[in-house]
Amino acid sequence: MSIGLNQILALVGKIDDSPGEDTPRERFRRYLRKNVLEAGQLRDYVEECLRSTGDNYSRALQDLVNYIGHFLEFEVTFGRYQGVPGEIGFDGHWESPTGFHIVVEVKTSEAFAIKTATLVGYVDSLISQHKIPNWNKALGLYVLGRPDPEIRQLENAIVAEGRSDQLRIISVDSLLSLAELMSEYDIDHEEVLAVIRPSGPRVDPVVDLMTALVAEPRVTEEKAPPPKKKGLPPEGEATYWLTPVKSVPEQTAEECVSTLVGEERIYAFGERTPGRKHLKPGDWMCFYATGGKGVIAHAQVASYPEKSSHPAVRRSERYPWVFHLKDTRLYLDEPTVIDADLRAQLDAFQDKDLNKHWAWFVQATRKITQHDFRILTHQQA
Question: Which of its termini does the chain have fewer beta carbons within 10 Å around, N or C?
Fold first, then answer.
């Protein structure tokens, strides 16, 4: 059984800026260096931070984000948790082997207004101290733990102030995806740096494209699972599906599931959604809210997908294949979190290293076994 972040923090103590080699923050950082060797472990810890409240979790999140920088092959200088007069208050300073610098500011959410002048000031101060050559070799990066699709204050401020060449925004989920891409695919540090530095303030759409492209071959490989897998239905019987639901500016994942699955009893797929042509009445589907929230609903498929327009479907031009549902059940406040302990119970992770890249499991619609469906939907008994 893996050690949860709450247990680690209980052992290291209250994390703060106290100096010394045996302080809680240094014990925590040593633990990360010695024990967290795979990106999948980082994702588990980050998601636990985002599900929890309190200063210790917020500060642990800051350290975890900086540790992602190590996975991306930056030389990382950890910043302070709280600012003090006379010291630069950056959260992290990442230096690339190419000579490019990224100054990181970690925000758990966008609930409060964020002043871009603060991060710009950190970069200016580092330039003044000759720790960064100039703005041509620097970038300020906001890493958001829980991006709110309805709040665009920070993005709008970056554009309005003409700082698109100086500041970027990325969710911690997308930053983790970059680390996973580097560990699992032929993507190197300079390619990652090129993704973070393009025009436009938000990086997530580029990362979404990359993860979709690399997830597709995995889905293709799994269309015909080997017969030895337990729980697979014979031809003509129910198939079990897991489908991810993402938040978009006009609607969160939870709102989407609540509206479509809970109220309208429908769902919709796109032209290229894996499994669309194989979906049939009698199948069962569970819905995963991305960003580490977990499986939040399940239902039985009641019709074949038909190309039509439904007013409740967001971006219906992208998701025109609508099918009906029955026997729906929502558990938005009690999601099934897909952590390492739960993955150890799933058929999908048999003979796999549970600490390695695992986000492939929730990045695209896929067939799962009946056994896995029951675990993901609180039906273990």
Answer: C
